[in-house]
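Retro notes (design track)

What went well: tokenization of the new backbones is finally stable.
What didn't: we kept losing track of which sequence belonged to which structure.
Fix going forward: every design gets posted as structure first, then sequence, in one message. First example under the new rule, 1015 residues:
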């Protein structure tokens, strides 16, 4: 074809007819090629349409991958947990990640993550079921039991029940006793103790300590040191095993390590060794749940490999980073030692104890360092499955729809490094970051820190083993601080403050490990050692949890890792330095003991005075708004404590505060306070009632709080009477005649306690039936300034100030004002985006008209002013027009909309709108929710205004007529869209009924013909 075209181009006298004939001939010869191209193009369109998941406009915005369809999947496999750190650079707090034909929600905001944790429609349990079979390799029969029974919720319930205080005490005691035995070998050395790899030493020591605490004296790892290595081989290669692609080949080491571990655990459970009294309660409860669902002992051993993995995979690397960050900073270690030494206790019999239970309270810097080490090292992924369609909010009015069946993933690596939560030094280790600052200026920052610390998950799936890990790790580090001088040494035996480089965090883990398991720390490919120099502690030492000392002294027991301790030329050097420090600290503690008692006593008295002051003042403030000043919470009685108050709350409930004249312990209503001081000490009674509840409900609440009366024959519950002011104009004919008002119509002012004050003689009271709703009673009582509550047997009535319309709607109007400011800001942004989108669409339409005009000019010129003439222009224009029609038809088929200019314009505008919304930070779903809530508040305030018969000027609370017009416009638009949706549903239903009727009609003749044949 190129040769033909070149030949014709070279011939200046070539005619248009010859060119067209050549072109048609080539197309006829190459029909198969064009058909192949058309099929490939159609296939690409279908793949793009069906492989991309549908995203609702209320869902989080779409974050497209750089490689279509599979880009996010490749990133997760390649970068593991670090992939979400890469996605954070796109500056989105939440996004929908399309992966093949499904989608995953990614969250990079602390407030949204807490909303996910609190939502009960988002659960971790499906992951426990789906990943369990790949991780543990059990058969389909067990999987069926898990899916068709209550095994998973029973398992979670058993775990939580096993982690109470007594069981944790026993586990901590067993684990720390093993640690004390291992450290005793260090104490009995000659000068110094060295280990070639500090991480492996900590890993092996704490693995044995943890398994001793879990399994008791029949610990499967105790007599087989290779099983401990298998546990960590299984943990390292688990991501490859989870893929499930021929695991015996692709994950050979992990696959066979799992087999050996499960065989040892199966032997443990087949012989019922978990029944031993020293075995942990969590191991007993988990095995009992499995056995109760018909799972054999061998299969229990297969399943319970998960317990071993969960107990060691994250706790031990956290301890390593905790120790590295502490002991690589000598000044910090010295400060922590000063903090720990007062906790060390001498028992007088050659035994030293550390009360682990007091570390949290008396060693705040040590606890802060532990949590900071967790923050720096925890980079895991939090996973939740959406069980039902639900909505989460970011606290700023934006809400996002999460669809049922989708997964939600949250990266701790991102949240633990957010600068808005942790400050500009979020990437650095700050020892006192978690020392609580109680001042008001730090309240917001402390709240953000709590929300952004997600190392242990949250909600009902909060990690149940966090307290065990806390005591185990802090006890170990506290013992080293109190008894040893730990200094990291490089390969030249010189002290170094270098922090080892961390490896990438696997998707199956939560805590990073040192690169190459700590090998090459200091110089590449050169092994270094950590030397532990003993400072003092010639006395045996033991550790004591909160419930009492363990009475376990140091004894020679080797390294405690199941292998022979390597011989070393250096051990620990003895010194008297720490003995003097301990003696000084203990003396200071003895001198300060009485002072502590006195401070505690003063603190108790001070707290009691504060509580009494709050009890006296807080009931007279507006409910639920303790932060506001007294001016913003106006007291309707102006401080008169002899009258009751009816206050509004942020909800629709009403708070009734009554100064009852009876003590709570008073046995008879006839007993009265002896003097005014005793009367003032009686705390008022606060009750919450709903406006739609009857007065009889309030009557029963009051009767439950007052003593019975004795009428001489028996004790009985006193009766309660509710009286409201009647219309005083009805009793004054002379005043009534001077006013133009019908006598049979009750007058309403809605002023309540704000109304004009009247003389007591001028007040006429009416008793109301107890079946009247509270709201109706309050509405009628608002005509006066107060209503009264009478108690049988008590000669004085309790007067209660009636809330006015302003009081009833106080919180609603405050919220409406706040929302109106937000609506005004978003309305301006939305109007600007809509204007730009419509202008772009009109320009596109104008450009199309200009293109058609240009095409018309070209056709005109070629036809009448060139030699080609109509012979060339006719087929070209025909083909161009037909191609345009076909392209437009395919486009409308693709968008599945009506064949109209309006549909095309709407799609063009909507796409441009969505792009502008996302670019400028406007969330349509949050806008709709905000407008809907604002209109709901307006409707509710109008309802109250109707009840009080007052005119409410909403423009004052909305901030102007512009906001009112926006809300009215959006309200009409939502109503119109709702009507259109209903019309479409009705039309679809009509078409469906017609189709069914036609189908039935087509079947009736067939039945008639069959009956004719039969006859």
């Amino acid at each position: 074809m190129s040769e033909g075209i070149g030949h014709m181009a070279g011939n200046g006298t070539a005619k248009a007819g010859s060119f067209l004939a050549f072109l048609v001939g080539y197309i006829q010869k190459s029909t198969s090629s064009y058909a192949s191209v058309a099929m490939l193009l159609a296939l690409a369109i279908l793949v793009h349409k069906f492989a991309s998941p549908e995203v609702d406009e209320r869902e989080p915005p779409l974050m497209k991958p750089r490689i279509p369809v599979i880009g996010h999947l490749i990133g997760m496999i390649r970068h593991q947990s670090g992939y979400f750190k890469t996605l954070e650079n796109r500056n989105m707090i939440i996004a929908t990640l399309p992966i093949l034909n499904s989608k995953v929600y990614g969250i990079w905001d602390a407030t949204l993550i807490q909303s996910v944790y609190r939502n009960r429609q988002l659960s971790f349990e499906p992951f426990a079921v789906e990943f369990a079979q790949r991780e543990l390799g059990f058969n389909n029969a067990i999987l069926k039991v898990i899916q068709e029974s209550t095994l998973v919720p029973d398992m979670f319930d058993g775990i939580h029940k096993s982690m109470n205080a007594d069981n944790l005490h026993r586990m901590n005691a067993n684990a720390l006793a093993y640690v004390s035995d291992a450290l005793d070998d260090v104490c009995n050395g000659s000068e110094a103790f060295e280990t070639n790899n500090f991480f492996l030493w900590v890993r092996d020591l704490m693995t044995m300590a943890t398994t001793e605490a879990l399994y008791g004296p029949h610990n499967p790892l105790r007599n087989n040191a290779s099983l401990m290595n298998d546990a960590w081989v299984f943990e390292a290669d688990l991501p490859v095993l989870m893929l499930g692609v021929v695991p015996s080949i692709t994950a050979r080491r992990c696959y066979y390590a799992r087999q050996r571990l499960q065989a040892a655990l199966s032997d443990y459970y087949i012989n019922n060794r978990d029944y031993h009294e020293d075995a942990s309660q969590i191991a007993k409860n988990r095995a009992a749940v499995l056995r109760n669902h018909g799972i054999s002992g061998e299969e229990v051993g297969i399943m319970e490999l998960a317990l071993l993995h969960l107990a060691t995979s994250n706790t031990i690397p956290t301890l390593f980073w905790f120790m590295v960050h502490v002991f690589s900073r000598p000044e910090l270690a010295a400060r922590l030692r000063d903090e720990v030494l007062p906790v060390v206790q001498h028992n007088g019999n050659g035994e030293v104890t550390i009360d682990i239970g007091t570390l949290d309270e008396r060693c705040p810097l040590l606890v802060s360092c532990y949590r900071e080490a967790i923050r720096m090292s925890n980079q895991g992924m939090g996973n939740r499955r959406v069980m039902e369609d639900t909505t989460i909010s970011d606290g700023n009015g934006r809400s996002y729809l999460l669809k049922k069946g989708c997964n939600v993933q949250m990266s701790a690596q991102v949240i633990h490094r957010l600068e808005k939560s942790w400050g500009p030094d979020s990437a650095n280790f700050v020892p006192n970051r978690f020392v609580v600052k109680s001042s008001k200026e730090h309240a917001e920052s402390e709240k953000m820190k709590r929300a952004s610390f997600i190392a242990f998950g949250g909600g009902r799936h909060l990690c149940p083993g966090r307290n065990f890990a806390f005591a185990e790790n802090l006890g170990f580090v506290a013992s080293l601080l109190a008894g040893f001088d730990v200094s990291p040494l490089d390969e030249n035996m010189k002290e170094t403050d270098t922090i080892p480089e961390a490896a990438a965090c696997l998707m199956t883990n939560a805590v990073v490990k040192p690169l190459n398991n700590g090998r090459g720390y200091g110089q590449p490919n050169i092994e270094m050692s950590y030397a532990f120099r003993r400072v003092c502690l010639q006395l045996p030492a033991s550790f004591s949890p909160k419930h009492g000392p363990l009475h376990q002294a140091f004894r020679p027991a080797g390294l405690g890792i199941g292998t022979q301790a390597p011989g070393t030329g250096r051990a620990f050097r003895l010194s008297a330095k720490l003995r003097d420090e301990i003696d000084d600290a203990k003396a200071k503690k003895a001198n300060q003991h009485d002072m502590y008692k006195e401070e505690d006593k003063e603190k108790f008295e001070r707290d009691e005075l504060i509580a009494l002051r709050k009890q006296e003042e807080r009931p007279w403030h507006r409910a639920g708004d303790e932060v506001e000043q007294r001016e913003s919470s106006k007291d309707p009685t102006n401080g008169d404590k002899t009258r009751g108050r009816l206050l509004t709350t942020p909800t629709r409930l009403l708070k009734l505060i009554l100064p009852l004249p009876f003590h709570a312990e008073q046995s008879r209503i006839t007993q009265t306070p002896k003097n005014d001081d005793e009367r003032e000490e009686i705390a008022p009674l606060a009750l919450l009632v709903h406006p739609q509840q009857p007065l009889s409900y309030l009557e029963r609440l009051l009767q439950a709080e007052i003593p019975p009366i004795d009428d001489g024959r028996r004790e009985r519950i006193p009766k309660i009477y509710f009286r409201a002011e009647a219309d005083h104009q009805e009793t004054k004919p002379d005043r009534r005649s001077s006013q133009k008002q019908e006598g049979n119509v009750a007058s309403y002012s809605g002023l309540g306690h704000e109304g004009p004050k009247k003389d007591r003689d001028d007040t006429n009271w009416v008793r109301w039936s107890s079946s009247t709703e509270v709201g109706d009673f309050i509405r009628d009582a608002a005509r006066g300034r107060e209503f009264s509550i009478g108690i049988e047997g008590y000669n004085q009535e309790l007067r209660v100030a009636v809330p006015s319309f302003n009081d009833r709607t106080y919180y609603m109007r405050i919220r409406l004002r706040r929302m109106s400011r937000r609506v005004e800001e978003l309305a301006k942004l939305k109007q600007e985006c809509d204007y730009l989108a419509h202008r772009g669409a009109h320009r596109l339409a104008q450009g199309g008209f200009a293109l058609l005009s240009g095409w018309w000019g070209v056709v005109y010129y070629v036809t009448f002013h060139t030699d080609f003439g109509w012979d060339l222009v006719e087929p070209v224009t025909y083909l161009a027009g037909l191609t345009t029609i076909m392209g437009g038809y395919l486009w409308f088929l693709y968008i599945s909309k009506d064949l109209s200019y309006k549909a095309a314009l709407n799609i063009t505008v909507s796409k441009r709108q969505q792009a502008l919304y996302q670019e400028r930070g406007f969330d349509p779903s949050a806008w709709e929710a905000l407008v809907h809530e604002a209109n709901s508040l307006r409707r509710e305030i109008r309802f109250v205004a109707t009840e009080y018969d007052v005119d409410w000027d909403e423009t004052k609370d909305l901030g102007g007529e512009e906001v009112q017009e926006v809300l009215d416009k959006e309200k009409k638009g939502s109503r119109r869209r709702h009507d259109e949706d209903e019309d479409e549903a009705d039309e679809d239903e009509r078409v469906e009924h017609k189709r069914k009727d036609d189908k039935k009609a087509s079947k009736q003749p067939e039945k008639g013909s069959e009956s004719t044949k039969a006859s």
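Added context from the reviewer: The chain has a mean pLDDT of 73.
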